Amino acid sequence: MTRPVLVIGGTGVFGSRLCIALLREPQVEVIVAGRDRAAAERFAARHGGRAERLDRDAPDLEARIAALRPVAVIDAAGPFQAYGADPYRLARAAVAAGAHYLDLSDDAAFTAGIGALDVPARAAGVQVLSGVSSVPALSSAVVEHLCRGIDDLHLIDIAILPGNRAPRGVSVVRAILAQAGQRIRLWRGSRWTEGRGWDQPVGIALFAGERARWASLIGAPDLLLFPERFRARSVVFRAGLELRLMRGGLWFLSLPVRAGLVRNLVPLGAALRWIAARLEPFGSDRGGMQVVVAGIMPGGDAVQREWRLRAGAGDGPQVPTLPARIVLRQLLGGGARPGARPCLAEFGVPAFAAELARSSIDITLEEEGARFPLLFAEALGGSLAALPEPIRALHRVIDLRRWAGRAEVVRGQGRLARLIGWAMGFPPATQDCAVSVEMQRRGAGEVWTRSFAGRRFRSHLTPAGGQGRGIVERFGPLSFHIGLTAHAGRLAYPVLSGRILGLPLPRLLLPVSETLEGVDAQGRATFDVALSHPLSGPIVRYRGWLVPDDDPLSL
To answer: Pairing mode, if any, of strands 72-75 and 100-103?
Structure first.
């Protein structure tokens, strides 16, 4: 006996692929529904299934769904961020009809808010899941798989990189344009911050022999849901366009949005979809997804694990439909857990791999892990492990760490000392002030931003060229080779050499650094930094203590 499954948006980019897959399931009767009945009938004539015209905004929506008596309703239409004042009307109609509900939402607010239907869903004994797609259904399953055994999860970094020849329906184009230039809420260093949609690009080489594709910040349910679910200090989500011309053009078009001159770029959807179609021959049909997690193991070692999905032969658009297939099969097999919630780790990576094998599509999976090269651990050549835990913790920077404490600042009194202190941005003298330090990973190095009572100065730290060789710290045009040494439970920062604008500084002009990190009686990391110069005498001395200001549990 077949069981009716209603697919809204069944003729769209993702809905059509989902329907074609479900038509191969002997226990499923597929109802292909959408606003265009002729399109649904053409699809049914070619592939099978029963065509229905169904408008999500129709006044008789609830009665129409009840009359179809589906065991499950799947919304593959979207764009979900444009569902208006009553975004969950379709989901409520499914619950009222006693049907399970799934959607392929990639909108953060929509997916995170689906829990509003939890009470009626439980009362009806049905399962309501939002985001049963690449994100967050698949991405959460992968993160849960990768972060096993990690004691302190510092970073979740996810990127989706479709091929340029991947079909883009109107809903997909509008979803992209709706985010370009908009403010995005980001969880970085255990604190909510802001970024801009389609900004801060990074290069990701997903396929061997192919130049890196640019992936930029974009909103996704993962950004809102993963910090609490996985207790991660930072969560980053990016998406990319294969052609740099298109990515650069989208960034340029977003400038008026950033400036507040226009609300969004959605009205350009039809025109930009036409342009993208003209550029389709210049790209490939290969796309994929990458998930990276990094953190600290119980013994203190830093690790990074990566999972990659590579899709060829135009099979990338199949990926968002695979989680819905898996979850629907669970529901039909009696595995429903009544209630309404985002689709977080409702299945495991083995189930996804099994669905791939069942689908016979051109997609490969790859997973690898390695020790994460912490800057100070490499620079000290293993000596960091001999230092007390508060100092070791201070230098476990995988993405972004924040510290806070108190400090005393003493400034040199000579004219040259004051001039140097002003040029370097050192804080004014004070007997006691609040101090904060932000340490952010940048490539193989780190950027430290110190704030003394609101007065900030910054330096860039990079490896000095080999394990145990120390670090190079740069303040504007000045850079110093620092030979880190660990002794008697303390870490010293002696200056070995210096440069200005890349030219070596003579020994006579080299500043003297007496910098020590230690641990006080309260178990706090301490710092004592004294800088002087043979020509000026003492320049600045600041000393105090720091404690973590980025507890991952402080959501």
So the answer is: parallel
Q: What is the spatial distance between Cα 397 and Cα 384, in angstroms, rounded to a whole number?
A: 13
Cα end-to-end distance, the chain, whole Å: 48
How far apart are alpha carbons 32 and 283 in whole angstroms? 31
Instruction: Give dist(CA 238, CA 158) in Å, integer.
Output: 6
Structure tokens, 317: 């658009």
Local structure of residue 427 (DSSP, 8 states): P
**Residue 237 C-beta-side C-alpha neighbours within 13 Å:** 26
Q: Taking the complete model, does pTM exceed 0.85, yes or no?
A: yes
Q: Tens digit of pLDDT for each residue in 10-55?
A: 999 899 999 999 999 999 999 999 899 999 999 999 999 999 999 8
The pLDDT of residue 171 is 74
Strand pairing report for 127-130 and 152-161? unpaired
Alpha-carbon torsion (253, 255, 259, 264), positive or negative: positive
Q: At residue 416, what are phi and psi to the nearest 5 degrees? A: -65, -40
Residue in 71, 90, 80 with CA at minimum distance from that of residue 25 = 71
Q: Give me 116's structure tokens.
A: 């509003």
Among residues 57, 12, 8, 14, the alpha carbon closest in space to that of 31 is found at 8
In tens, the pLDDT along 295-337 reads 999 988 999 999 999 998 778 889 999 999 999 999 999 989 9
Count of other CB atoms within 10 angstroms of residue 507: 9
Beta strands of 301-444 (E only): which ranges?
Answer: 302-311, 339-342, 363-371, 400-411, 430-442
Within 8 A by CB and 6+ apart from 545, the residues are: 405, 406, 407, 520, 522, 524, 525, 526, 527
**Tokens 């492990």 sit on residue:** 385
Interatomic CA distance for residues 217 and 553, integer angstroms: 24
